[in-house]
Amino acid sequence: MTKDEIRSYLEFYRDLGIQSIYLRPPDRSVESVSAPVTEPVRAPEIPPVLLEPLRPSVALPALEPPGDTLEKIREDIGDCRRCRLCEGRNTIVFGSGNPQSPLVFVGEGPGADEDQQGLPFVGRAGQLLTQMIDNTAAKEGLAIRRSDVYICNVVKCRPPENRTPQQDEMETCGQFLYRQLNTIKPKAICALGATAMKALLNTKEGITKSRGRWHEWQDIPVMITYHPSYLLRQYNQQARREAWEDLKTLLHYVYD
Ligand code: URA
């Protein structure tokens, strides 16, 4: 990474209010490094994101049995063997957070840490998601923390080598995601990345075009933004600023 890239990386995290960053050392074991961001450089003003409500491209049928509950959905998943992802998983990662939350975040699928712990977004991407939610809310004066929202994934079992879930795996597991969303009935959903976007919206648009705008899943507004893993990988200041704007828009819509 060049000095300029490091500077823009730290500026982005400083803008989010993040005080500690996590570096992956060469031996690939994760280590927390305290890195207070003291750089006095002013970030440029970002123009507001244009929000354009879209209709869903397909009408999805109601999938949930009457009187559905999260407990019943988890029970129905059972020790699932419906697709090949069961072969490599340790744990089914169902979801976590406030089951009455007006806001649900949907990711792609568990990674190694999630597969070990049985909880979504607990690895590096999860740490970033937590910081993004907590710090954006604090900065915007909203009394919201990660534990106040509900978080789940399109597929509940870790894909081998963290590969993108395949269409049939998404369809098989998607029924449970839809039931989770229909049971919680949040005021808004945040689709994190292209897999969540594909699972919820029948769109052929790319994430760059779809993010930052309101879409709908079964009459529930859906905000699309970048997946935190992408933000960790990408040294692209623009993407990080855009994700921050998307989150601000989303949190104000849900909690104002
Ligand atoms: N990435 C996801 O999409 N979900 C998780 O739970 C963790 C990482």
Give the CATH class. Alpha Beta
Instruction: Summarize the helix and strand pattern as letters.
Output: HEEHEEHHEHEHHEEHH
Residue share in helix: 25-40%
What does the average pLDDT come to?
84
Count the strands? Answer: 8
End-to-end gap: 39 Å
Could you say which small molecules are bound to this protein? uracil
Q: Return residue spans where pLDDT drops below 50 for at least 5 consecutive residues.
A: 22-62
Individual helix count? 9
> How many domains, in number, for the residues?
1
Structural class: alpha/beta
- The CATH topology is Uracil-DNA Glycosylase, subunit E
Strand arrangement in the largest pleated sheet = 3-5-4-6-8-7
Please give the CATH architecture.
3-Layer(aba) Sandwich
- Per DSSP, what share of the residues sits in E-state strands of 2 or more residues? 5-15%
- CATH homologous group name: Uracil-DNA glycosylase-like domain
Q: Main β-sheet: number of strands, strand sense, barrel status?
A: 6 strands, mixed
Task: Provide a descriptive summary of the structure in words.
- The protein has about 260 residues and is an alpha/beta fold.
- The protein has a single domain (about 70-255), classed as Uracil-DNA Glycosylase, subunit E (3-Layer(aba) Sandwich), CATH 3.40.470.
- It contains nine helices and eight strands.
- The strands form two sheets. Strands 3-5-4-6-8-7 form a six-stranded mixed beta sheet, sandwiched between helices.
- Helix 2 runs antiparallel to helix 5 and helix 4 (about 125-140) crosses helix 9 (about 235-255).
- It is globular and about 50 Å long.
- Mean pLDDT is about 85; it is low at about 20-60.
